[in-house]
């Protein structure tokens, strides 16, 4: 059995978003489309802490859009931003206490040609160096994969990959949250593998 075929356990996700975001670095995103599997290594992730985090969608309460964040851990929370770009998040923490981690960037491991095709021929660093690009490269859409159970190992899941030592990780403020309160806007909740 290939390591990328084994999904991370529900227990992995049933922890605070900050812990999960850090621990997702080096893990694999796996997307099965028919007989093909696309695999990317997560290199950047952002934590969203829930109702008390003014940068989080959950801070506005339970709505049809945010409902997945309030559900069980280990599910996908996919939403559309600007009506154009799908964003892939993983739900974390205990059910009923909304939190999630946004997958911001990855590097291709397997299926790069298909990812390039999904991105309209874009290749190299711009292939998947942002959350919308990552979702497009992996063919992830809100209509197909929102609320998807990532622990089943079907269509979309996260796999063990290779964890990254602390010495190779940097943390900084999250991107694109100017609307958030200063303490949330400036919190170092974005984790990146240092180059």
Automatic annotation (TrEMBL):
It comes from Modicisalibacter xianhensis. It comes from the Bacteria. Pfam families: Pur_DNA_glyco. SUPFAM superfamilies: FMT C-terminal domain-like. InterPro entries: Formyl_transferase-like_C_sf (IPR011034), MPG (IPR003180), MPG_sf (IPR036995). NCBIfam families: 3mg, PRK00802.1-3. This is Putative 3-methyladenine DNA glycosylase. GO terms for biological process: base-excision repair. The keyword Hydrolase applies. Belongs to the DNA glycosylase MPG family. It is an enzyme of class 3 (hydrolase). Keywords: DNA damage, DNA repair, Hydrolase. CDD domains: AAG. GO terms for molecular function: alkylbase DNA N-glycosylase activity; DNA binding. Its EC number is 3.2.2.-. The keyword DNA damage applies.
């Amino acid at each position: 059995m290939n390591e990328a075929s084994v999904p991370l356990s529900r227990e992995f996700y049933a922890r605070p978003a900050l812990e999960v975001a850090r621990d997702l670095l080096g893990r694999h995103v796996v997307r099965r489309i028919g007989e093909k599997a696309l695999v990317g290594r997560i290199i950047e992730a952002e934590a969203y802490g829930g109702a008390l985090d003014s940068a989080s969608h959950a801070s506005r309460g339970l709505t049809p859009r945010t409902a997945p964040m309030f559900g069980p851990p280990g599910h996908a929370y996919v939403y559309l931003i600007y009506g154009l770009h799908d964003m892939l998040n993983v739900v974390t923490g205990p059910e009923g206490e909304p939190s999630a981690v946004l997958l911001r960037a990855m590097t291709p491991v397997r299926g790069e040609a298909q990812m390039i095709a999904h991105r309209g021929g874009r290749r190299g660093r711009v292939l998947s160096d942002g959350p919308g690009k990552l979702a497009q490269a992996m063919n992830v859409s809100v209509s197909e994969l929102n609320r998807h159970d990532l622990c089943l190992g079907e269509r979309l899941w996260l796999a063990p990959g290779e964890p990254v030592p602390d010495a190779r990780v940097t943390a900084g403020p999250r991107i694109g949250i100017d609307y958030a309160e200063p303490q949330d806007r400036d919190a170092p909740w974005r984790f990146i593998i240092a180059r």
